[in-house]
């Protein structure tokens, strides 16, 4: 390819070629000097780019007044080229349109049945009644009128024409949002002036970015350059668009067709690994600076700050730890998982004191696994209605009755909180000061609801009178859902300020107890035993006295706990799941560890009691079924689904049958038979799901990251 490019250069510059048509990736293989010579050549009259996105960087060069540059677009199925646009001064700083259609050719952007509304476009189709290439076994006699061919490209239309947005396969879903890899490339180019390429690695589940910088440079210079670029990228791109990996390369590899070879770039990423002799502290520090968007040289200034105080989040923390394992081929120190959520940067570095290489185990450590794969016998689920809350709905809805009517209450990241009737019609709507993610609770008054908000307040609202009855302010965000205690005369909940609160129904503080970490889970209350069980991000499970909040016992495990605890059917065991993937049981009376069961991946899902079993989901795409024994547990089965599971399941009991409703992050909601452990029905929602499903009267209610709350019928 290099020799061919040099031959073309000599042909253009020495042979005085007047017309040149090229794929942009091939043209950009020339260096700056060669590109300048070509564009300023007096012999070259016409330069045409096609086959890829028009290279806007070309417009930064000086060019001959006699040179005309065109953007050309089309597909082979409609005799190759279909549109042509001449570059003018007016298009110098704007998007480049596809241009006017050639003779007997039409262009349309079809939004119907297209999933790219978030990008304000649809798929581009090219049509013609004469310029038709027959595909496979098509019968030419049946091809009458204008025949449209799909391009596989997403475009949008305005008064200036049709504009290319991205290839359909360059639009991916990441963290619940659709992102355009081409847009990320453009933002990085506008920021740095450097050609770059984004690649989504399905194998590694990572977003890769390769930046082209010509010439040789030493590793230290390269490191500083990448550090500066990362800081800029992190500050300008939304969280779901920040690359997991960035690398500087001299040239983009090309395929035999002259287009960027993304497989070679993915292989390059796989080959860049740190050796066993790597400095773990240095790797961790670089990753910390990468994910919070701080220059590595400035980290000492932030050594007394926590990860979340410098721009981190739960997702970024887990990404950091996952990448640490990947690049070092070693597990991280056990105490680091808790430290990154609760402690300062300097405290996290202490976790590496006397730390030695811990090779990751490649074999499965679960014994006697009875595994079921997806087996959908019938598709009886359907969407009855949906309601748009204008932003992601990750919270679990509350479904309740009031005066024989069914209502659904839920909040969203848009700050909107609504109460809907059974048909999805709006009964109450209020915009709160911040996001709402915790599950609400209906009060004994029936027409009032308790709901926590990210502004740090617990609210009591009357959805009939449409008024706020009272609010109680804590010291930080509230994600924990309130639970009734003290014979249903009070509520208990936790806050990110590490405090468990008990309030009367009138909003008066009864007691508050400071624990050892932030509380994101819902408390579990045993009214008969007058005990409250609550978990913290620091990895502890507390048992509190219901009357005054006194700590009866505390058990601290190794890793953070985001899920809520549950009690065994005989009320003798309290079951918890830590984020690292361990389910453990504690004796209700003493808090002593009874048994533990380790999975192979993270757990955010809360355990749910299923007769004498407990079920929970995992990031490893499985739903587990554990039988609870007096002094241990037994893995009954695990069912493989199509993607990660972070939400909590719910139980359906119909006649003598018991079913489990599971929502995967992919947006698929499935019903599993608790006896056969097979999926018997499922439905696919349009976007990712982190909300937990709720079943009530033959219907399932669940939030989705397409901004809607859904009502599903199970027929």
Report on this model:
With 715 residues, the chain is an alpha+beta fold. Among the domains are: 98 residues, GMP Synthetase, Chain A, domain 3 (2-Layer Sandwich); 85 residues, Non-ribosomal Peptide Synthetase Peptidyl Carrier Protein, Chain A; 177 residues, 7 Propeller (Methylamine Dehydrogenase, Chain H), CATH 2.130.10.10. The protein is 15% helix and 36% strand. The strands form 12 sheets. A 5-stranded mixed beta sheet has the order 1-2-3-4-5.
Question: What top-tier CATH class of the domain at 361-390 and 569-715 fits best?
Answer: Mainly Beta
The poorly predicted ranges are 113-119, 360-378
Discrete helix count: 10
- % residues in beta strands: 35-45%
CATH architecture of the domain at 361-390 and 569-715: 7 Propeller
Classified in CATH, the superfamily of the domain at 361-390 and 569-715 is YVTN repeat-like/Quinoprotein amine dehydrogenase
Q: Strand order, main sheet: write it out.
A: 1-2-3-4-5
Straight-line N-to-C gap? 60 Å
CATH topology assignment of the domain at 361-390 and 569-715:
Methylamine Dehydrogenase, Chain H
Radius of gyration: 29 Å
- The pLDDT mean sits at 85
Number of strands: 47
**Global geometry:** globular
Pfam family, one: AMP-binding
Protein name: AMP-dependent synthetase/ligase domain-containing protein
What characteristics describe this protein?
single chain, 715 residues, alpha+beta, Non-ribosomal Peptide Synthetase Peptidyl Carrier Protein, Chain A, Methylamine Dehydrogenase, Chain H, 5-stranded mixed sheet, 47 strands, AMP-dependent synthetase/ligase domain-containing protein, PQQ_rpt_dom, Quinoprotein_ADH-like_sf, ANL_N_sf
